[in-house]
């Protein structure tokens, strides 16, 4: 174990990102984060063991890493609330563009324009946040949420292009895990 | 309609209208070019446009002009930007190849035989070239379709169609290889001079290369189709979940509770701030910390109004040295002497030799003080005695 500790790099930086509920993505814009991803990929089991010692369980997804715990620290209601919020966000984003996912590039202005010419999107935008009604504010808050989670990063400062990171897979996969019971499948309108 | 009489004439007319043709070619995918705009580009000489239409380079559709397909195709082919993948031409060349080989074998005249042989080489080269071009077009079209086609259903249909084309190309490659290797053994043995050998080996190499490329493209198409399916599945799932959520049926009709109770990712927890105290040792010893403290202190002083509730300065006279001597008996000393004496406390206190004159009243106070201060270590008996109107218990050291 002491040898492994010497070999592991960036443990503090990685901890700082993951312990705040963030993700480390393989297609991050930041070369530093990419480096973190590579070192974890190289010695995944070492990092797992290292953080496990302080109660954080590192998990790997399709191009991303994140922390989980063994015991629940928050009650189920809170978790439900969090996921339901993300169902709203994802519903909005996928309505904006069905290919919205890792590797997708967009600008906030693109979404704002789309809102103003798509009725469905407009309706969804107005319901997204109870305290935000203006389209720019809604988009800004949504972008902020996505950025905070580590799902998107600004790729181009000049024209404000964002890039969707591989961590976005996490949300898609979580959603994909939920099974809808057979009886209601048919009741949902097309 | 007129036709060009020589290549020179054709090239010259194309050169003269290169601006217009360039513009039309660039806009070939969007709407056709407006007649007025074309006129502007030919320096408002209508006869020049008439000439182009007359010679079948342009087509007049009312207010618009379009480039004739034959020229459009020529430009696209030469510039390698064609989108249509044409597998039938390869099939044609294969037929022609077979025909020419047939003629070659039947012909007795050496000169004409040679011509047929040359034709065979040309066909072989064309087959290889067309196949390579087709493969390249296929690759480009596949990427373009996946990345640029906004409509999901069309995108999927296009990719499936490209996949069919891919199968056709690979079929033709196999056919061509089969023809060279097995179907015409006599010709390829008889007519195999150095040049023919080079051509055949080049063609085989190119076909082989193309085939390998096709495998990669096929993998890519399958990957794209899977991606589309995945995206579509997620899209559908979210749409359904959103519907259930909006109807307040989400928890009833899905296993979301079960899924979430199995998972404890950190992002669902409220943000925790780790309150870590300053290291006192570090503050004491580190230069850096000292600098920071100095900075902080300076900032503290710089505050505009200064700290609130500031007391007035202490008057000077308060700070003058004033000493006061209080002569007191050290009770600890008295007690120590008492423990060593073995007498009872009252008798000892009254008869103790103090360093100064002590009144009887003070001695009584000392007695009481000693008895209460050292009560733990004293042995209070139940016997009482009297002395000058004072009743006292007999107290001994333990």
Please tell me about this protein's structure.
- The complex is a heterodimer of chains A (190) and B (398).
- Chain A is an alpha+beta fold.
- Chain A is 55% helix and 13% strand.
- Chain A has helices at residues 2-7, 11-18, 31-42, 44-52, 76-96, 108-117, 119-128, 135-149, 168-177, 182-185; strands at 24-25, 57-61, 64-68, 105-107, 152-156, 161-164.
- Chain A has a 3-stranded antiparallel β-sheet with strand order 1-3-2. In chain A, strands 4-6-5 form a 3-stranded antiparallel β-sheet.
- The longest helix of chain A has 21 residues, at 76-96.
- The model of chain A has no long low-confidence stretch (mean pLDDT 88).
- The longest helix of chain B is centred in the middle third of the chain and has 53 residues, at 194-246.
- Chain B is elongated and about 165 Å long.
- Chain B starts with 6 loop residues before the first helix and ends with a strand.
- Classes of the chains: A alpha+beta (190), B mainly alpha (398).
- At the A-B interface, β3, α5, α9 and α10 of A face α10, α11 and α12 of B.
Tally of contiguous helical segments of chain B:
17
Question: Structural class per helix/strand content of chain A?
Answer: alpha+beta
H/E series of chain B: HHEHHEEHHHHHHHHHHHHHEE
Report the end-to-end length of chain B measured between terminal Cα atoms: 142 Å
Poorly predicted regions of chain A: none
| H and E string of chain A | HHEHHEEHEHHHEEHH
Structural class of chain B: mainly alpha
Strand ordering within the main sheet of chain A: 1-3-2
Q: Count of helical segments of chain A?
A: 10
- Strand residues, percent of chain B: 5-15%
* Helix content bin of chain B: 55-70%
Mean pLDDT rating of chain B: 85
Largest protein-protein interface: A-B, 47 and 35 residues
* Anisotropy-based shape of chain A: globular
Q: Give the proportion of residues in helices of chain A.
A: 55-70%
Number of strands of chain A: 6
Which band does the percent of strand residues of chain A land in? Answer: 5-15%
């Amino acid at each position: 174990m002491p040898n492994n500790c010497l070999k592991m790099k960036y443990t503090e930086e990685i901890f700082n990102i993951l312990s705040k509920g963030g993700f480390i993505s393989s297609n991050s814009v930041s070369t530093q984060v990419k480096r973190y991803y590579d070192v974890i990929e190289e010695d995944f089991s070492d990092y797992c063991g290292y953080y496990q010692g302080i109660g954080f369980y590192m998990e790997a997804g399709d191009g991303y890493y994140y922390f989980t715990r063994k015991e629940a620290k928050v009650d189920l209601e809170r978790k439900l609330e969090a996921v339901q919020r993300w169902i709203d966000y994802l519903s909005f984003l996928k309505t904006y563009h069905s290919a919205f996912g890792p590797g997708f590039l967009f600008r906030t202005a693109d979404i704002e324009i789309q809102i103003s010419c798509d009725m469905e999107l407009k309706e969804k935008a107005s319901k997204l946040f109870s305290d935000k009604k203006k389209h720019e504010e809604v988009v800004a808050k949504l972008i902020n949420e996505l950025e905070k989670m580590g799902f998107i990063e600004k790729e181009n400062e000049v024209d404000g292009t964002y890039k969707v990171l591989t961590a976005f897979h996490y949300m898609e996969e979580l959603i994909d895990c939920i099974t809808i019971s057979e009886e209601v499948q048919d009741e949902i309108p097309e | 309609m007129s036709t060009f009489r020589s290549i020179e004439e054709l090239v010259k007319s194309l050169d003269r209208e290169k601006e217009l043709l360039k513009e039309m070619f660039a806009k070939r995918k969007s709407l056709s070019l407006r007649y007025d705009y074309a006129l502007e580009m030919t320096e408002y000489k209508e006869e020049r446009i008439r000439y182009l239409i007359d010679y079948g380079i342009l087509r007049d559709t009312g207010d618009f002009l379009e480039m004739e397909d034959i020229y459009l195709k020529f430009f696209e082919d030469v510039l390698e930007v064609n989108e249509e993948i044409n597998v039938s031409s390869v099939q044609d060349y294969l037929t022609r190849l077979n025909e020419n080989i047939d003629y070659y074998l039947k012909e007795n005249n050496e000169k004409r035989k040679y011509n047929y042989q040359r034709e065979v080489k040309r066909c072989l080269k064309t087959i290889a070239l067309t196949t390579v071009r087709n493969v390249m077009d296929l690759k480009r079209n596949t990427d373009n379709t996946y990345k640029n086609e906004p409509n999901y259903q069309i995108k999927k249909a296009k990719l499936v169609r490209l996949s069919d084309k891919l199968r056709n190309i690979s079929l033709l490659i196999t056919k061509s290889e089969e023809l060279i290797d097995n179907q015409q053994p006599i010709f390829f043995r008889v007519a195999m001079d150095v040049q023919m050998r080079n051509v055949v080996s080049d063609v085989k190499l190119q076909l082989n290369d193309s085939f390998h490329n096709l495998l990669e493209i096929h993998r890519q198409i399958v990957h794209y189709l899977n991606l589309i399916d995945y995206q579509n599945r997620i899209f559908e799932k979210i749409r359904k979940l959103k519907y259930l959520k909006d109807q307040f049926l989400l928890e009833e009709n899905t296993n979301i509770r079960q899924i979430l109770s199995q998972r404890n990712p950190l992002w669902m927890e409220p943000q925790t701030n780790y309150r870590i105290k300053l290291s006192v040792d570090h503050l004491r010893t580190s230069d850096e910390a000292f600098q920071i403290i100095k900075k902080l202190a300076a900032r503290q002083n710089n505050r505009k109004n200064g700290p609130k509730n500031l007391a007035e300065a202490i008057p000077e006279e308060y700070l003058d040295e004033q000493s006061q001597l209080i002569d007191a008996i050290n009770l600890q000393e008295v007690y120590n002497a008492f423990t060593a004496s073995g007498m009872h406390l009252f008798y000892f206190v009254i008869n103790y030799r103090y360093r100064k004159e002590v009144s009887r009243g003070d001695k009584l106070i000392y007695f009481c003080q000693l008895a209460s201060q050292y009560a733990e270590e004293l042995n209070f008996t139940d016997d009482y005695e009297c002395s000058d109107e004072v009743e006292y218990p007999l107290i001994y050291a333990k």
